[in-house]
Design brief:
55% of the residues lie in helices and 0% in strands. The chain is mostly helical and 153 residues long.
Length: 153
């Protein structure tokens, strides 16, 4: 027996809202697709809910997308199912504004004795020597310089 874990049962108002979203040309494609998925998955509709694979084929998405939308509707409601999740920053930035200012000032100053120019590794080492950060890679230094539109040359 293949029972669905997350059932979608829409009210008449929700069904009307979703139908309007699907038919409107102003609606973003992703939002329209999610609305279609919810309409096809509605248990309260006259024909009952379609199977996830049938929904996925008719909406041109994967079966997992259908399952995810169904789950978000059941747990968080219609707004969460229609709108994309906000991405969380997985790691905090190594350098804050003060650290970035120090990096830019250092990169624009004269190179240390024995070197013609600053290298990313030298800048990373200088940031650690001055205890701006505990550890930082040359790649993080490069990305910071690129983001602030600075260069070493």
């Amino acid at each position: 027996m293949n029972r669905k874990k997350y059932n979608v049962t829409l009210t008449q108002d929700e069904r009307n809202t979703l139908t309007h979203l699907v038919s409107s040309k102003q609606t973003a494609k992703r939002k329209s697709m999610h609305a279609q998925i919810l309409l096809y998955a509605d248990e309260a509709s006259s024909g009952g809910a379609l199977k996830d694979t049938a929904i996925a084929e008719s909406v041109h998405c994967s079966r997992m997308t259908v399952i995810r939308i169904r789950k978000r509707f059941a747990k968080e409601g219609i707004e969460a199912a229609l709108n994309p999740k906000l991405q969380k920053r997985y790691r905090a930035r190594k350098l804050d504004a003060k650290g970035e200012a120090f990096l830019i000032a250092t990169a624009n100053s004269s190179a240390p004795r024995g070197h013609a120019n600053w290298t990313l590794k030298l800048l990373a080492n200088r940031l650690m020597e001055c205890e701006i950060v505990q550890s930082i890679s040359p790649e993080s230094v490069r990305k910071t310089l690129k983001r602030t539109k600075q260069s070493l040359g």
